[in-house]
């Protein structure tokens, strides 16, 4: 891993084509939410497929918990869609045939010169692409379990959401005063909130 990529630093705001061929920035996909980013080998890897199947089962919890999920592979557009459809994923897949992420993060899997993939990693990000935790998944057991991700997102959310402890006298007083600044959706419209929950990326910027 590149020496400047560690918990507490900021993940580069990569811009890559998604599973429809449209360029997407990680910051747009994240918005103001916590986000999980998986860097995977691709369609040929059974470890990736198993991890993504688990995440497909977890994804409804991410939606109601207002957390985002993005997968990046070195597959082509066709293979990226094969993988996405094959695991029943409903989140954004980005493909990186040029190995931009691999080179920037210094995660070439040098033990596989035939496929030249990235060493699989899972990043858990706080808002602003701030790295909270990095899991190295070269071996399958290095990848986070759903319980690991649940704990990570609980900690991030408890620190990032001002209304996480809504039962305090201070929060009740703020609500009764008519001040909604510290309450979800924090000035966003419900249209924006539901667009993100639905993965409607092209509506993210609309009010």
Automatic annotation (TrEMBL):
InterPro entries: AhpC/TSA, Thioredoxin-like_sf. GO terms for molecular function: antioxidant activity; oxidoreductase activity. The lineage of its organism: Bacteria, Pseudomonadati, Bacteroidota, Cytophagia, Cytophagales. This is Peroxiredoxin. Residues 8-132 form the Alkyl hydroperoxide reductase subunit C/ Thiol specific antioxidant domain.
